[in-house]
Amino acid sequence: MEERKRLLIGEGKISGYLSIFLAIISLGFVICAYFPDVFTTKNFRDIYDPQIVKWAILGVLVLSFAFAFTSFILSKRKRYGFISTVIIAATIFIGSALPETSGIQDKSVTIGLDWLLIDILVSAIVFIPIELFLPKRLNQSKFHSEWHTDLVYFIISHLLIQVTGVIIQMPAVFAFKGIGLESFHDNIQSIPFIPQLFVALLVSDLFQYTAHYFFHKVPYLWRFHAVHHSTKHLDWLAGSRTHFLDLIVVRAVSFIPIYVCGFSSSVFLTYIVIVSFQAVLAHSNTRINFGFLKYVFVTPQYHHWHHSDDPKAYDKNFAIHFPFIDMIFGTYYPMGNTWPEGTGLGNVKFPKGFSRQFIYSFTTDPSKEQNLKNPSER
Ligand SMILES: [Zn+2]
Ligand SMILES: [Zn+2]
Fold first, then answer.
1. Which ligand is nearest to the CA of 282?
2. Which of 133, 151, 233, 299 could form a disulfide with 294 if both were Cys (CB 3.0 to 4.6 A apart)?
């Protein structure tokens, strides 16, 4: 398939797509407001301020309209602006008929549509400008041949947040609940914020490192992790491409020390924000290399080398927060100022699409197709 060209500023296409994207987001928020007990996450619901939510939806709508207007002016084709105007009108029409909600029933299983909308909106606001103005691979289009697949991963993992959250916590809760860790938690929580946060990131990264290492080294586990490595187009959405089994196991293992240590809620919340942000940043298509900080924190350059299709960089740079962990265990790739030429699984013909990739991991060993003498080389 021929690769699409990178979108150029001034053609009216970027503003058109942004306009449609924002219009869909606001329509999604209105759907959340109609069916809050189905489409909103209880943990989030507790912190919503209805007035702020209302103004936020209006703000997104205004922005969407502004982009639609820009696209109308810049683009010869008027369909982008037209599509978003229709969605905006539908959102206003449905939103204006919104009934007053009285008491929300707590359902045991909810769909995290609110989490999906908030996270994709915030990620888009932060990462689209970064990739647009400071890209690493200039010729890579946002709408490359794999972006649909990555978007499906992003959507499914967010909608299932409540279910996966429960499964991820299970091993830690099962093994360590009720064994009298309260005084240990008190000691941990008495540590000042910054060092406590450092401990949280360090212990979870050590556990993540171990699980990640085994997903590379054990051939059967590699089948599942290969899904994450299959993309040839790294960008902010590509990090979402993770097989369900890989996602659950690695997150459950990383959660064990977090549960055992019982960090304060402010540290835990900050930890969640950093984990989510750094995971997206590490995959994004940006040349920002953060100066000397790249030796302290995992950066895009660092993690792009982890995805390199060059055998000399296989099984390197496993850490997700601190490069010194790889340095200590001898898995640091001495990247200097270089970037990998390409990413992915070399000559493996990996299937495209969420469900095909889900099944492929159970049926096929990608290392057999790869240009390797034996699977243990990975
Ligand atoms: Zn990996
Ligand atoms: Zn990755």
1. 2
2. 299
Same domain, 216 and 340: yes
One domain, residues 251 and 359: yes
Distance (angstroms) between ligand 2 centre and the Cα of 47 equals 31
Q: How far is the CA of 316 from the centre of ligand 1 (A)?
A: 8
Token pair 């500023």 is found at 9
> What is the number of the ligand closest to the CA of 281?
2
Q: Determine the distance separating the centroid of ligand 1 and the alpha carbon of 26, expressed in angstroms.
A: 35
Amino acid 10: pLDDT: 65
What do you get for the CA distance between the two ends of the chain, in Å? Answer: 29
223 plus 346 within the same structural domain: yes
pTM of the model: 0.88
For 242, other C-beta atoms within 10 Å of its C-beta total 18
How sure is the predictor about 370, in pLDDT bands with cuts at 50, 70 and 90? low
Per the structure, the count of domains in the chain is 2
* String of DSSP letters for 316-352: ----SS-HHHHHHHT-----TT---S-BS-TT--PPP
How many A from CA of 302 to the centre of ligand 2? 10
Tell me the CA–centroid distance for residue 338 and ligand 2, in Å: 18
pLDDT digits (tens, 9 = 90+) for 69-106: 888 888 777 777 888 888 988 888 888 877 766 667 77
CA of 34 to the centre of ligand 1 (A): 40
Q: Mind giving me the DSSP string for 197-228? A: HHHHHHHHHHHHHHHHHHHHHSHHHHHHHHHH
Reduce the DSSP state of residue 308 to 3 states and report it.
strand
117, part of any domain: no
d(CA 342, CA 319): 20
Q: Report CA(333)–ligand 2 centroid distance (Å).
A: 15
Q: What distance in Å separates the CA atoms of residue 40 and residue 113, rounded to the nearest whole number?
A: 6
Beta pairing partners, 82: none
Query: Where do we find the tokens 């970037």?
Result: 339
Question: How much distance in Å is there from the Cα of 237 to the middle of ligand 1?
Answer: 16
102 plus 173 within the same structural domain: no
Q: How many Å lie between the centroid of ligand 1 and the Cα of residue 307?
A: 7
